[in-house]
Specification:
By secondary structure, the chain is of the alpha/beta class. The chain has 16 helices and eleven strands. Among the domains are: 18-198 and 213-239, 3-Layer(aba) Sandwich (Rossmann fold); 335-431, de novo design (two linked rop proteins) (Up-down Bundle). A hairpin with a 5-residue loop joins strand 5 (249-256) and strand 6. Bound molecules: flavin mononucleotide and iron/sulfur cluster.
Length: 469
């Protein structure tokens, strides 16, 4: 299969009904999972070497096995379709093209880990995707394919943290997107066990049963979309695509300083340079300076654009594949401004449960603003270094690490640009908007312009304050 023919997860034309889905082979993965039973299903996923597409690349078969092995009477399966990573539109592309494969993948996951209830967390603002998911879940249930499994759609807020798995569970439980302490496989949905490991008080009134930890599986939307195809076609077929350590296809997003921003499904191992070409290449007369795989990894320099898009190759250049959503910047962009914009995004989105994260990312952002305005001194650079070292202290979630990794990588990769700002105001005064995507299609991308007005308390300048959840 060539990269072009991939079309597996993003079929064209889109799948519009269960009948259409079944005509194209849909439902066979679930059938095979029932024949195999949970143990062999996990074995098949391990053989396929599928890795989580939510950003971390964690081996999916191992994750499913750990939920099966965890103690607890109730289990849940959750699909993460929150898609909040900047520069990423792939889950929405998958959901628009074929929501049925995602629900089928979730049903296979639930069956395998022993869950009777499953949830799909999706932003309330993702209208067409929510409709597609609801329709797919209803049609699959009506056709008897879900066999006693209840699939519910949980609509969540626009906050970046909604996609963080511990915050996602909070939202499904009806709370704000504040990451809880323990991971989902230890403290799952509707768990009653105390999170700190000891009880500071007697069980709540009316709590008669033993405490429940409800181990919960959380997988990204694209991860689950892969599952029915792997089961129906076999692990060997999946491994025939991509590379040894990163098999399969990956749905990539390319935005920023390219002629035609797009989402495209490619074989793993395709180079980032080829993805840039798929996005129409750089703008006329411009050369690319840097790329970012969302805001969770170190900057990728122009000299590394030939790197294959695999977990191992991206790691080898000191960055990461993330959710394969890339924002690229050309020689008209100021890297201090990029650092400021990304740092501000993370500082605003930080929930503040861990003071060094909220305070530190805010201070780093302030200092970068001073630097950008040509008002910073060497002392301010020192101060940024100090905050970067402590911003992760006591962190509950990975957002604080993102701030540390991303900002320090930019400052290290572009020391001349930093130095130039110490002597005079920015030589490339072009404002950078964080590429938080609202819509993408026909070579045009729409970013969330409201984000620039979002304040650290999650209210918006110029708008009446409203509760987030
Ligand atoms: C701040 C933050 C935001 C995240 N946002 C998303 C998201 O929008 N979608 C997603 O699938 N994973 C997101 N993740 C990763 C999830 O926590 C989790 O690792 C993922 O859903 C696991 O699925 P996978 O194993 O299939 O990759 C985020 C993580 C962090 C720290
Ligand atoms: S690390 Fe930051 S974003 Fe994560 S829980 Fe703590 S304060 Fe919130």
């Amino acid at each position: 299969m060539s990269a072009d023919q991939a079309g597996l997860l993003v079929p064209d034309p889109p799948v519009t009904s269960l009948e259409d889905y079944r005509d194209r082979g849909g439902g066979q993965g679930l059938e095979r999972a029932r024949e195999l039973g949970p143990e062999l299903t996990v074995k098949e996923l391990r053989l396929a070497r599928l890795r989580g597409r939510g950003g971390g690349g964690f081996p999916t078969g191992d994750k499913w096995a750990s939920i099966r092995a965890a103690s607890g009477r109730h289990r849940y399966a959750v699909c993460n379709a929150a898609e909040g990573e900047p520069a990423t539109f792939k889950d929405r592309a998958i959901l628009r093209a074929n929501p049925y494969q995602v629900v089928e993948g979730l049903a296979i996951a639930a069956l395998t880990v022993g869950a009777r209830e499953a949830f799909i967390g999706v932003k309330a603002s993702f209208g067409p995707e929510r409709e597609g998911l609801t329709r797919a879940a209803q049609e699959l249930a009506r056709a008897g394919l879900l066999e006693g499994l209840t699939v519910s759609i949980a609509a969540g807020p626009d906050e970046y943290l909604f996609g963080e798995e511990k915050a996602l569970l909070e939202v499904i439980e009806g709370n704000d997107p504040l990451p809880r302490l323990l991971p989902p496989f230890i403290h799952g949905l509707f768990a009653t066990a105390p999170q700190l490991g000891w009880e500071a008080h007697a069980p709540e009134t009316g709590h008669v049963a033993e405490h429940e930890s409800n181990p919960t599986l959380v997988n990204n939307c694209e991860t689950l979309a892969n599952v029915p195809h792997i089961l129906s076609r076999g692990a060997e077929w999946f491994r025939s695509l991509g590379t040894e350590a990163s098999p399969g296809t990956i749905v990539c997003t390319i935005v920023g300083d390219v002629a035609r921003p797009t989402v495209v499904e490619l074989e793993m191992g395709t180079t980032l340079a080829e993805l840039v070409e798929r996005g129409g290449g750089p703008l006329p007369g411009r050369t690319l300076k840097a790329a970012f795989s969302g805001v969770a990894n170190a900057v990728i320099r122009a000299r590394d654009l030939g790197t294959p898009m695999t977990y191992e190759d991206m790691k080898a250049i000191g960055s990461g594949l993330g959710a394969a959503g890339f924002a690229v910047y050309d020689d008209s962009a100021c890297m201090v401004e990029v650092a400021r914009a990304f740092s501000r995004f993370l500082a605003v989105e930080s929930c503040g449960q861990c003071p060094p994260c909220k305070l530190g990312s805010g201070q780093i952002t302030n200092a970068l603003e001073q630097l950008q305005a040509g008002r910073a001194t060497d002392d301010d650079i020192e101060r940024i270094g100090g905050w970067l070292r402590s911003v992760t202290d006591g962190n509950r979630c990975y957002l604080a690490v993102e701030e540390q990794v991303l900002v320090s990588s930019i400052l290290q990769a572009f020391p001349d640009e930093v130095a130039a700002h110490l002597e005079a105001p920015c030589p490339l005064p072009r404002p950078i908007l964080v590429p938080k995507i609202v819509d993408l299609g026909d070579g045009r991308v729409v970013y969330d312009e409201r984000q620039a007005r979002k304040r650290p308390d999650w209210t918006y300048e110029g708008e009446p304050a409203a509760r987030v959840g």
